[in-house]
């Protein structure tokens, strides 16, 4: 049955390719766009008058309104304005706003460094740090990280960029309980353009936590009051458990600045924001303005269904959405280039551990044996959905650097084995009902709901396929799509049975991946990003290695200056994850990012090491824009 279903899927995809290739030929057309303009002009006219009984003809000057048809410069960079067209979803006002620290802030994620830059930008292939708001950094001692800031820079509101902006940014992040505060005790200004991060102890991961794109620096002119009030609470000895802290946090979450004050080379034009698009104009006052070669960015709103026709129409120059295989085939047939960079993460099957029997690791193991992850990745994303083999909790492409040969040999790959799954379930006292549906050890039929973001085409396809495979095995599963903005809220609130959310992290150090795996959607303890019960999975677990505190191990894996000691902990975490499977990683996503070359030139060739940065974590497109590698093609404002 499995092979038959897989052949049907392959046949459907091949048919899609043929249909895409048979689409009507796309030809370039030239259109003249016009509009009617009414304006006042001055003109001379002859008039005839009777003066003292005589007829007199004379010329006079008068203002008259005239209507004429004029040609309008088309969008896309003509008329001397060069444009880069992006696509990233945002919530428009009034729900969308300019507090980029909190939900619905219009920071535009991977493009935020173009407005609110980080201190540096990390380049994966040579492990270098490109200066941005920071000029240089060094370790003063084992627990003091010093950063020299760019001097002479100004924010878009005219205020100077100083150390105070950095101090205030991290004070707000302390209010929000951001992860770096588990590793540091303070941040102090040495002078107007130098700051010291004071650590609790040595850490090889700390630079990644505070210097990279993970932290955008914000303006004190906007956030300084909240930052000072946070420091006041700290000076009083209050913590996040106090009522005063909670009250300030609630007030900050409701804070809505009138505008986004930026340091980077682009700034959102508030008047341009609509339901469908916004414009980011060049911020000429930025010290980074000359780095980029485009005059403005046009960002289109929406998820995959909204963006697909725009890509096909060549209105979007680059998009990171997860496009289905048939759509990707149509892009290729249309001559659009596809860039595949690793994401080091992907979709996973999450469980609400308050629902029996999801809390049983043996049951989760049985489900892993049922799901054909090769099939799931291929159906969902074609060549860009690559099954995770090691099932260690972080990407296989990184695992080789961290895991010993003994650990790799001990890891269970969970290759498809329906007989093994059946053996595990019967060993737990489960049995099948008369219609073949499994019943648990209490006699309850195993019938579950599986949700995924409806607008994420790849995750929705993965969820549908998982539901089909589980149902075929006798675990009746119904897929239900949920709005992509609502879905993470539901999961973090524990309002789900099974769900598709992300695993791993786009970071070269595995401790960041385990933070996602164990805490991002879990109210069960630890440094939880979630607000609410989440998957309700306790982080102190019994394993074949004994009782483990997974939260403390994750923190320890990123602490200290001894990488060999960190590797030992990471190998322990990999074995524990592989045994416990708090979620089932389905596959690692590689980008299938369309890059139209109509308005934009300069994309590096396939295989260029900059693509190791991936589309999201340290996004290569942001680097390519900031370094001027991408530039306007002929006809785009030139």
CATH superfamily of the largest domain: Dipeptide-binding Protein, Domain 3
Q: Helix share of residues?
A: 25-40%
Morphology: globular
How many H/I helices? 18
CATH class of the largest domain equals Alpha Beta
Strand content: 15-25%
The description of the largest β-sheet is: 5 strands, mixed
What is the end-to-end distance?
Answer: 59 Å
Strand arrangement within the widest β-sheet reads 19-18-20-14-23
- The whole-angstrom Rg is 29 Å
**Beta strands, count:** 27
- pLDDT averaged over residues: 89
What is the structural class? Answer: alpha+beta
Keywords for this structure?
alpha+beta; 23% strand; five-stranded mixed sheet; globular; 638 residues; D-Maltodextrin-Binding Protein, domain 2; 27 strands; Dipeptide-binding Protein, domain 3
Structure explained in plain terms:
The structure is a single chain. This protein has 638 residues and is of the alpha+beta class. The chain has three domains: 116-253, Dipeptide-binding Protein, Domain 1 (Dipeptide-binding Protein, domain 1, Alpha-Beta Complex); 266-341 and 592-632, D-Maltodextrin-Binding Protein, domain 2, CATH 3.40.190; 345-589, Dipeptide-binding Protein, Domain 3 (Dipeptide-binding Protein, domain 3). The chain has 18 helices and 27 strands. Strands 19-18-20-14-23 form a five-stranded mixed sheet. A four-stranded mixed sheet has the order 3-12-11-10, with no helix packed on it. The chain has a four-stranded antiparallel sheet with strand order 6-7-9-8, covered by helices on one side. α2 packs across α4 (220-235) and α15 (510-519) packs antiparallel against α16 (550-558).
């Amino acid at each position: 049955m499995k092979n038959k279903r897989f052949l049907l899927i392959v046949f459907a995809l091949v048919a899609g390719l043929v249909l895409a290739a048979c689409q009507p030929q796309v030809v370039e057309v030239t259109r003249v766009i016009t509009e009617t303009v009414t304006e006042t002009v001055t003109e001379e006219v002859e008039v005839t008058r009777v003066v003292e009984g005589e007829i007199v003809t004379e010329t006079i000057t008068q203002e008259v309104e005239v209507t004429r048809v004029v040609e309008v410069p088309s969008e896309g960079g003509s008329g001397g304005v060069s444009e880069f067209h992006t696509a990233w979803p945002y919530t428009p006002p009034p729900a969308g706003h300019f507090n980029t620290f909190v939900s619905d802030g219009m920071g535009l994620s991977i493009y935020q460094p173009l407005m609110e830059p980080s201190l540096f930008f990390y380049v994966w292939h040579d492990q270098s740090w490109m200066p941005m708001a920071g000029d240089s950094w060094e370790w003063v001692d084992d627990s003091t990280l010093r950063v020299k800031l760019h001097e002479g820079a100004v924010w878009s509101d005219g205020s100077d960029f100083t150390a105070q902006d950095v101090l205030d940014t991290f004070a707000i992040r302390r209010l929000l309980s951001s992860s770096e505060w588990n590793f540091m005790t303070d941040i102090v200004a040495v002078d107007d353009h130098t700051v010291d991060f004071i650590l609790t102890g040595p850490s090889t991961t700390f630079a990644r936590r505070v210097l990279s794109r993970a932290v955008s620096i914000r303006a004190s002119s906007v956030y300084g009051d909240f930052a000072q009030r946070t420091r006041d609470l700290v000076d009083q000895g209050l913590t996040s458990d106090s009522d005063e802290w909670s009250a300030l946090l609630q007030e900050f979450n409701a804070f809505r600045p009138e505008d986004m004050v930026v340091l980077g080379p682009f700034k959102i034009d508030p008047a341009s924001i609509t339901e469908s698009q916004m414009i980011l104009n060049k911020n000429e006052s930025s010290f980074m303005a000359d780095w980029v070669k485009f005059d403005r960015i046009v960002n289109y709103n929406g998820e995959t269904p909204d963006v697909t026709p725009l890509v096909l129409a060549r209105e979007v120059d680059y998009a990171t959405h997860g496009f289905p295989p048939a759509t990707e085939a149509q892009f290729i047939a249309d001559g659009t280039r596809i860039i595949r960079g690793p994401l080091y993460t992907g979709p996973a099957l999450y469980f609400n551990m308050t629902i029996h029997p999801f809390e049983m690791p043996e049951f989760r193991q049985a489900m892993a044996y049922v799901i054909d992850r090769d099939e799931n990745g291929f159906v969902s994303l074609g060549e860009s959905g690559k099954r995770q083999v090691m099932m260690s909790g972080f990407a296989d492409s990184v695992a080789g650097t961290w895991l010993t040969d003994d650990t790799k040999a001990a890891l269970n790959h969970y290759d498809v084995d329906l007989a093994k799954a059946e053996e595990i379930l019967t060993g737990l006292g489960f049995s099948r009902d008369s219609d073949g549906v499994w019943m648990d050890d209490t006699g309850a039929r195993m019938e579950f709901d599986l949700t995924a973001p409806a607008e994420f085409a790849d995750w929705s396809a993965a969820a549908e396929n998982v539901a089909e495979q589980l149902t075929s095995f006798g675990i009746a599963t119904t897929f239900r799509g949920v709005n992509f903005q609502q879905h993470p809220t539901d999961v973090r609130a524990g309002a789900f049975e099974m769900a598709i959310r992300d695993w791993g992290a786009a970071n070269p150090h595995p401790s960041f991946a385990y933070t996602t795996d164990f805490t991002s959607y879990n109210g069960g303890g630890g440094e939880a990003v979630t607000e609410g019960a989440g998957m309700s999975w306790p982080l102190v677990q019994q394993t074949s290695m004994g009782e483990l505190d997974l939260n403390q191990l994750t923190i320890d894996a990123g602490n200290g200056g001894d990488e060999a000691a960190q590797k030992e902990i990471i190998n322990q975490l990999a074995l524990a994850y592989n045994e416990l499977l708090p979620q089932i990683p389905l596959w690692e996503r590689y980008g299938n990012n369309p890059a139209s070359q109509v308005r934009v030139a300069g994309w590096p060739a396939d295989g260029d090491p900059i693509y190791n940065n991936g589309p999201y974590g340290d996004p290569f497109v942001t680097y390519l824009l900031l370094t001027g590698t991408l530039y306007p093609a002929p006809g785009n404002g030139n």
